[in-house]
Amino acid sequence: MPAPASAKAANRHDMSVILVTGSYDHEIRFWEAWSGICSRTIARTGEVGQVNRLAISPDKRLLAAAIHKKVHVYETGSPSSDPLVTFDGHTMNITSVAFHSEGKWLVTGSEDGNIKIWDLRSSTLHRTYDNSAPVNDVCIHPNQSELISCDQSGSIKQWDLSDNICSHELTPAGDVPIRSVSLASDGSCLVAGNNKGQCYVWKVNDEHSGLPRFQAVTRFLAHNKYLTRCLLSPDARYLATCSADTTIKIWSISSNYDFKQEKVLIGHQRWVWDCAFSADSAYLVTASSDHTARLWEMSSGETVRQYNGHHKAAVCCALHDGAS
User: Which residues contact 276 (CB under 8 A, 6 or more apart)?
Assistant: First the structure.
């Protein structure tokens, strides 16, 4: 992200940094990252269900918002509150959404136990995988040909998009629900966090290496309360964990996958639900039940901006400040 003093930060039409939050108040808000001004609001008045998850397309052109059972896809540069396309097919809350690296499709996971792939070029449902348990999170492998999901039954599954099968399954803590999964940007490391605040780490080996695909390397207690999100930084040097204990913890990662608590980010007054790193891993955005979002500077662990405007819990956020 640009330096706080940058004159560009004051330009409302500068789309180099896209920061978005979603809330139980049914509103999606776009923010000027450094001024803290809300530059655009999409109000889903009268619509059933809150905004659950947000994702920005790699080219910054689209915002996907998981709202109850539907996904609305908006143009980030348009002032319109009407979605470009709506994907409707899940029968329960959608809990996760992620874009393909070239923006060709997006994937969703839902409490209805299904994972769906939606074709953005034809605006149709492309494929459905039956996970057989409520899905809590889904991420796309950097190779774009595999998905990693986690669910309420305590399972982590790898889905092979070429063979259309679940090729691997992990159950690190029996039936304890896994809340969140995160893959390193090079696909070498997988981290998962569960309802009891425990984090599990696997080294991900190449399919042709002759080694197990997932090799358990460590586990640690990240929080003493409910863990809501775990997220590896783009440079894979840090892990951020969010929790019901109102804190965000930053863990440094050594070359041998040793996780050391480096900072505790304190400032939110209630549950912290979601987080997003800047492209250079120097900043972190968080969303909380205290109705606010915060921008944190990783080096100091301090809040550099607070975003006020939501009237209920802010439960999701998305940040894209990389090259489009």
Answer: 231, 284, 285, 317, 318, 319
Confidence check: pLDDT of 301 > 70: yes
Average pLDDT over residues 270-277: 98
pLDDT band at 206 (very low <50, low <70, confident <90, very high): confident
Least confident of 47-61, 147-161, 229-243: 47-61
Side-by-side strand order, sheet with 124-130 = 94-99, 105-110, 114-119, 124-130
Contact indicator for 178, 133 with CB cutoff of 8 Å: no
Residues contacting residue 5 through CB under 8 Å, at least 6 positions apart: none
3-state secondary structure the chain: CCCCCCHHHHCCCCCCCEEEEEECCCEEEEECCCCCCEEEEEECCCCCCCEEEEEECCCCCEEEEEECCEEEEEECCCCCCCCCEEEECCCCCEEEEEECCCCCEEEEEECCCEEEEEECCCCEEEEEEECCCCEEEEEECCCCCEEEEEECCCCEEEEECCCCEEEEEECCCCCCCEEEEEECCCCCEEEEEECCCEEEEEEECCCCCCCCCEEEEEEEECCCCCEEEEEECCCCCEEEEEECCCCEEEEEECCCCCEEEEEEECCCCCCEEEEEECCCCCEEEEEECCCCEEEEECCCCEEEEEECCCCCCEEEEEEECCCC
- Whole-prediction pTM value? 0.94
Burial class (CB in 10 A: 0-12, 13-18, 19+), 174: exposed
Q: Contact at 8 Å (CB) between 259 and 288?
A: no
User: 101 phi and psi, to 5 degrees?
Assistant: -60, -25
pLDDT of residue 5: 43
| Average pLDDT of the chain to the nearest whole number | 93
Tokens of 286: 């968080």
